[in-house]
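seq as requested:
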Amino acid sequence: MTQRTGGPEALPLDLETMRGTARRLLAEDAELPTAGELETLTLTLRGHMMLLVPAVEDAARPLPEADVPRACALACVGEARMRLGMEPGPTLPAAVAHAQRLGRSVNALCDHVENLDGAQR
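struct tokens:
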């Protein structure tokens, strides 16, 4: 687990679980979820993103403004916020595609948390 840098009230992030949720939709051999499973996965991924976005921002904040990893991380945060504002399409394939996009954002945000955390040590 990775500890957020946002002070004593910050929650530890279980990046392994977050990546596992994303893998449920993104693995090459992933089975198509039922509509109910998909709704649960989508809500779970959104929750993961809501925890990851401030963690990435906290980790990026101390870095110099011209730092490339900082810029990449903040661009990822912007894309994640955009995806959080989107709604899934009305069909199952559209809803799966939406959830997969959320999963890719979760993976990218996890990468940034790990990379930025390592850069500050």
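The longest helix spans residues 92-119.
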